[in-house]
Amino acid sequence: MPIYIALLRGINVSGHKPVPMAELQKLFEKLGHKGARTFIQSGNVAFRSGEKDPGKLAVALEAAILKKFGFDVPVILRTLEGMRAALKGNPYAKPEPAEGERVYITFLDRAPGKDAAKDLQTHSDPVDELKLVKTEVYILARKGYGNSKLSNAFVEKKAGVRATTRNLETTAKLIALGESL
Prior knowledge:
Blueprint: E1 3-8, H1 21-30, E2 34-38, E3 44-48, H2 54-69, E4 75-79, H3 80-88, E5 102-108, H4 114-120, E6 128-133, E7 136-141, H5 152-159, E8 163-167, H6 168-179
Antiparallel strand pairs: 1-3, 1-4, 2-3, 5-7, 5-8, 6-7
Helix pairs in contact: 3-6
């Protein structure tokens, strides 16, 4: 049974779209997924599923979340292997970022079109840098992600696809969570 990591976008932010993690975990289990475990309040779920088609699974999860909680929540899905590859593929790993710099991964629900991908990659500057690798956008934020123009909304708009962003530490912890199933 494949292990998946579901990354929910835009929940539990300043009181908007409240989703208690215990209820989210129960929902995944009610849907027949095994070993569902959540990590932090931003909406991360590691679980096993008999569904082999990640696209079909993401659509089903979004529908179930809408029915249960009453609002749309985009679900970006990766297999455990996909999460490992995303972390390993970090183009900013060597040399390590300087003091105060942090790397984030924006996970896309699919690869952007050729023109959107080309345009997206023109938005690096001396303060913030990004690199698109298939369905991940790696962001090097030199002055903090909260001050970066390369926000999740910016990446979604430029790439023309749905996305959600996690820092490297959270990504590593989600991999460890998936490995524990």
